[in-house]
Amino acid sequence: MLVDSRITESCDTREPGIAYGAGVEQWPDEAAARRRAEYLKNILASAPKHGSECQAVNGNPLLRVSGELKPSAGQAYQAAVTG
Q1: CA 52, 12, 70, 83 torsion: positive or negative?
Q2: How far apart are CA 24 and CA 61, in angstroms?
Q3: Among 55, 61, 64, which residue's Cα sits nearest to residue 19?
Q4: I need a surface site. Which of 13, 35, 65, 67 has the fewest CB within 10 A?
């Protein structure tokens, strides 16, 4: 998990999570990564109190970026992960 200083909400760096920046999950294959992304989208859509995030799948990694960041930040993380 990555803690992003652009998020102004207080962050407990001992237990960082997607809400405070970004993270990459590694899955066995792209299909599994896409299933996980869809699962997370459904959870967040049904329980908005958990916040929001943007996601990108490129092969088997799933990039998750806090919805507290601007879309340009998500694009920057995606560029860093995908090369």
Answers
A1: negative
A2: 6
A3: 64
A4: 13
- Read off the pLDDT of residues 31-46 as tens digits, 9 standing for 90 and up: 999 999 999 999 999 9
The tens digit of pLDDT for each residue in 49-73 reads: 888 899 999 899 999 999 989 889 9
C-alpha dihedral sign at 70, 71, 74, 80? negative
Extract the tokens encoding 47.
């329980």
Tokens of 70: 């601007």
Question: Between 26 and 13, where is the model more confident?
Answer: 26
User: Looking up tokens 């792209």, which residue turns up?
Assistant: 30
Maximum Cα–Cα distance across the chain: 35
